Amino acid sequence: MRGRGFALFGECLFAGVLVVLAALPAVTLLPALAAGCAHVRAQVEQEGGTGTRAFWGRFRAAWPGSLPVSAAGAVIAAVLLADLAAVRAGLPGGRYVLAVCAAAAAFAAVTALRAAAAWRPGARWWELVRAAAVRGARTDLPGTLLLAAALAAAGAATWALWPLAVPMAGCLLLAAVAVERRAAVG
């Protein structure tokens, strides 16, 4: 059993590297996350197909329809960054704006992770994101809090030592897969 856990950890790290590479152009973030989650899910469920070729095949399968959703995510990120710039410039009530921006960014990131973890070939991205937002806000609030805690831990580790961004990406994939499996079972 110990060897299987180590293999899962290794696959998470490997998937993190592949996701970071695939997501370098920002508009490929969602298909990269979906391919990474599918990669980790294949390892967890012992389906096989966890090599590099399988990852890129999943990435290509997740690409159709992801561009408009990714563009919407980029717009949300730009608005949040503009709000943060206004806070840094001395916006009155900046602490409250900062809190709202942090909550919105966390919810958007959790929704993206949940949508990516729920992705299967042939799924439509807008439907996945809509369902992930509903699960995140209404039907599985504990799962949302778990993913938010995973994001906070990954952010703190990356802030402390930036090269940890790559392994933390793999850990976030595993967390997203685990939360979605937990929601499906519960």
TrEMBL record:
Superkingdom of this protein's organism? Bacteria
Q: Which UniProt keywords apply?
A: Membrane, Transmembrane, Transmembrane helix
Which parts pass through the membrane? 66-84, 96-119, 146-179
How is this protein named in the record? Uncharacterized protein DUF624
Species of origin reads Allonocardiopsis opalescens
